[in-house]
Amino acid sequence: MIAALARTLDNLLGRGEAAVTVPALDGAMRPNRRLDEAGTKLPLENVDCIAVSAGLVHASAGDHIHRLSPAKQWEATYGCGAPITAMAAVEGGLAAALATGEIVIFGGAFDGRRYDPGLACITAMVAGGGRLYVASGSATNGADDWQRDLMERNASGSVRHIDLESGEGSTLADGLAWPAGLALAGDRLIASEAWRHRLLGLPVDGGPAEVLAADLPAYPGRISATAGGYWLAGFAPRSQLVEFVLREPAYRRRMLAEVPQPFWVAPTLRSGRSFYEPLQGGGVKHLGLLKPWAPTMSAGLCVRFDEGLRPQSSLHSRADGATHGITSVIEHDGHVFAASRGDGVVVALHAMGEAA
Amino acid sequence: MSLSDTMTRWRYRAVPDHLVGEILTKRWVDNAIPMLILLAVLAVFGSLIPDFFGSASVTNLARQWGEFGLIVIALMIVMVAGGIDLSVGSTFALGNIVALALISVAEWSVPAVVATTVMCGAAVGLVNGLLVGYLRLRAFLTTLVTLIIVRAIVDMLLLKYSVSIAAAFPDSDLWYFFGEGFLLGAPFSVVVIVTIAVIIHLVLSRSRAGWHILAVGGSRRSAHNVGIPVRRVICSTYVVSGILASLAGVLFASRLGGAGADTGIGLEIAALTAAVLGGNSLGGGRGSAAKAVIGSITVMIIVNSLVRLGVTSGANSLLLGIVLLAAVAIDVRWLKNRHKVLSKVYVSPTYADLPPAPPTSGASPYALNDRLRPVELIGLGRIDGPEDVILDDDDNIYVGDRTGDIVRFFAPDYKRQEVFAHTGGRPLGMAFAKDGSLLVCIGGMGLYRVTMDRRIERLTDETNRSWLSIIDDSRLRLADDLDIALDGRVFFSEATIRYEMHDWPVDCLESRGNGRIVCFDPNTGSTRTVLKNLVFPNGICMTHDGQSFLFAETWGCRISRYWFDGPKKGTVEPVISDLPGYPDNINRASDGTYWVALVGMRTPSVDLAMKMPGFRKRMARRIAPDEWLYPNINTGCVIRFDENGRIIETLWDFGGENHPMITSMREHKGHLYIGGIFNNRIGKLKLDGMDESWTGQTSYWGRT
User: Are the CB atoms for B89 and B248 separated by under 8 Å?
Assistant: First the structure.
């Protein structure tokens, strides 16, 4: 009763939960243009997830898994017959989660095995200790429908594990708000909970979750473990306007019903392609230029964390950049590979200095 | 339209939310709380005391109020100038005893008595004034000392004359008239105070002396810096205070005719309570006769009613003290929070349903294309924000820019430029008059003329004030675009009367009919508003019949036609009511049709927000303006249409490489010249199949 009253009052005065605040990009998150200035750009339409298997970088895009040849060319390697929603390296091979809910293994010890954990929205996977850990973003929306899931303010995601040998599995955590990334850290699983902008630590054998990093300035996506830390892909920036719209149920409801999805006031992997998209005050072009600090519905962000989940450094593509919607980032062979799904390109830059 | 939309629409039609904010911008709103307190006091005691509103009761109360009110006004004047006068009670007592002694013992004539008594009061005031004003002693301590000294003098006079005063019986009807007579049906003292209150009000609000007093009270140092004789002003307020207090003493003497030791004791506290309760600031700079009147009536009623209710005198003072404390607290909080409340409630969006936007693809006349791609750029990087573009007979280009200049680019190659005139405001719409001078709407200033020898003349900066408008809408805030009728009358749009130029996004957020079209007649020099309640009226263009013009309403996404002459005089007809974007300037095309610039395009998210005023209001409060949902003004286009509203062609720069937003375009000799208010270039586009000798001037004035 009192809580409801306090909420009503907050809503009236714009305090507490109704205060629309977004953390500033500062410290290790200080903006730069390093994603746009990356030395190597490898265009791949609709690229989504990157994984390293057999010493080679693989990327999923649409129905296919592509392999990066030594000549820095993408070669379509495996066809899956359905859109791939997540991919992970498994025992010398690759596991691909399909939009149908199936998980298929290509190559390695479990080549050809198929699993069906009964999840239609697999957003991330990681393998270790004979198990495959699977994050499901939502119980009601598909992986490509993440904007709707955010706008519906759902928290129906879950994390499961599957025994690779037997195919048996169980749920480690549920009621999560779009878990979108997984990484293994010993006996703990690090999961990003996108709609709550935080990283969680989940014991691999079940148990209560622990918040490792909170109030991130972007929606955290896939995580990859690297020497001495982790890389996190922030697939879309948080913005005051979106936070405000999330607190406006009437507007959200009508927007979902009346406005075509590409033109929603919602974070996206790539914005500014159509003049029907929402524009914010700071995004008005002045003297023919879009300001880099302009509020935007899409941006590129990769954050390097140390082992204690403290942010160390970051790679950015700002409002006027061309490497938006980073869905996956991985470090391999001295290079950081970041998949920009928004702009259909994988950028690679030297990892030097990132481990600091 | 759904039921809830209909209800929202009626809700916003029925309740004029914006008036709340406009009322709060008024200075007189400070009187609202004192007035409410007065009404509450009236209601409480009116119901507690039988026959409270009876004529005998009211007359008696009014007569006493006349005296008390004078003292409050006296104190108010000193407080407004930043001081305080605690000696008013003693001065009042002094006035009483002096007047009684003169009329009863010395038996002077009444005018001489009044004059001398007032002089005595003025003398006390002068002492205060010299000490506080010129010697700059603390007002509080100084007047406290005067209080004691004057009280001592009164006591000495009492000792000497009280017996003879009690024995004497002045033989003068005029003397008794002061205390007991009626003038125009009101007690004499009420007539006196009303007259004085009106005079003081006029002096404070309308005269140089009054402004000086307010300025000194508001900021002594600033007043000194602008050359106001601070010391003299302060001194004079104490003199006025002494005069008014002793005048009240005269009225009191006439009414009661008796001198007592308790006359005027504690009066300064009651007067101070009344002044503060009325809303006069203790810190100075804020106060008025009306506030003093409201406060004095309130305190008068409280004090008298408590006595009539039989409350003991100690409790009476206690209650008065509590009221004073509460009044001071309210005064401080109100002063501190008023502007915060104002900033929260001033922005008041309203329901704005636009017709469905036509598509911009397929067979639509608005279909996307790249026809603006081949523009030739003029002044790239050398001009900041050419809102409007115009060319003279020699093909030179004139544009207004953000720094307030009108810049001229020289034909034929436009490589050379110069500042043609510096206006100081924001030059927006331009038109050449018949005599060749350039008429300009200047945002923040009004309608101006720049002659070819660069003389800048003001044509008008105000129009008639609307009777029912709360904010003063006579000044022109945002003159936007103009056009000139054949007889020389200038019709120009004022986009909004509620906001200044740089606040245009807030007006969009409101989407109310805040704008108007104004006519300036150079033949009579008069300025009149011809059309009101338009939604950000922007471009204006004369039609070819000489009796009407087309005008665009930006946030309304429509173009209408208004007849100012002829059989349809005074009527407005829609021409295009469902534009896919936000129209800006309209200009003539060479073949008798018209060009209109769309500054931006409608987006579904904004169209939806327009139907949800509460959402927009909360957005304005909760998030920074840079984060607000804007109409998409990053993509614009140019449209050609005819008088029937038929769209003939659309010119796009899709991708916005050169002209992300377009606010104006001007056809001249087979080319189209394009400007944008946030752009840094002018575009020149070769038009196919348009008359290569046509210019605006020949079209308007038949010159070559």
Answer: no
Best of A22, A240, A246, A276 to mutate (most B CBs within 10 Å, chain B): A276
| CATH dotted code for A24-270+294-350 | 2.120.10.30
Residue pair B202/B211 in contact by the 8 Å Cβ criterion: no
Q: Which backbone phi and psi does B659 adopt, to 5 degrees?
A: -130, 75
φ/ψ of residue A254, rounded to 5? -70, -35
- Which chain B residues are closer than 8 Å to A285 by Cβ? 634, 656, 660-661, 678
DSSP 8-state code for residue B687:
P
Percentage of the residues of chain B whose pLDDT score is greater than 70: 100
Provide the residue ranges of all domains of chain A, joining segments of one domain with +.
24-270+294-350
Confidence band (pLDDT; 50, 70, 90) for A352? low
| Residues A284, B658: C-beta atoms closer than 8 Å | no
> Which pLDDT does position B406 carry in this prediction?
95
CA distance A86 to chain B (A): 31
Q: Which ipTM value was assigned to this complex?
A: 0.91
Q: Identify any residues that bridge with A140 across adjacent strands, giving them in sequence order.
A: none
Q: Are A83 and A64 in contact (CB under 8 A)?
A: no
CATH dotted code for B376-460+474-701:
2.120.10.30
* pLDDT for position A140: 94
Q: Do B627 and A18 touch (CB under 8 A)?
A: no
Beta carbons of B578 and B520 less than 8 angstroms apart: no
Q: In sequence order, which residues have a C-beta less than 8 Å from that of residue B265 and are 6 or more positions away?
A: B89, B93
Confidence class of residue A354 from pLDDT cuts 50, 70 and 90? very low
In angstroms, the separation between the Cα of residue A112 and the nearest Cα of chain B is 47
DSSP string, B410-431: PTTT---EEEEEE-SSEEEEEE
Angle between the B289-308 and B32-48 helix axes, to the nearest 10 degrees? Answer: 20
Mutation target to probe the A interface, by most A beta carbons within 10 A, among B401, B508, B629 is B629
Asked if A276 lies within 8 A of B619 by C-beta distance, the reply is no
CATH of domain B55-343: 1.10.3470
The domain limits of chain B are 55-343, 376-460+474-701
